[in-house]
Amino acid sequence: MFIQLAVLPLPFLALQLFRLIAEYKDIPCKVAGSVPRGTSPGELILDEHVSPADQRVMSLASAYALVAAGEALTDAGWKPSTEEERHKTGEYSATCIVVENQ
Q1: pLDDT value at position 39?
Q2: What is the pTM of this model?
Q3: 38 in helix, strand or coil?
Q4: So where are the chain's domains?
Q5: Quick one: which H or E segment has residue 22?
Q6: DSSP 52-71
């Protein structure tokens, strides 16, 4: 599994975060979900998708994003067969945690 990390300057990230908070703060809807884990049908066995070594160095949200990206490629029927096609296939995900002081 190939994982590429991008490092951006903290002031840039903070500015983007504050813009997002301001843009969406008045939306009354909050969305949440859960990922059932286990061995029963409909449950995720994370070790089948992400190695335990990779799981130790990434957040659970990142692991879920990688699994979802793989499922999306499978659902789309995308099976790159050449080196060029594999290099043109990618996934980008980001995780943002907002903590508000009450």
Answers
A1: 93
A2: 0.57
A3: coil
A4: 46-102
A5: helix 10-24
A6: HHHHHTS-HHHHHHHHHHHH
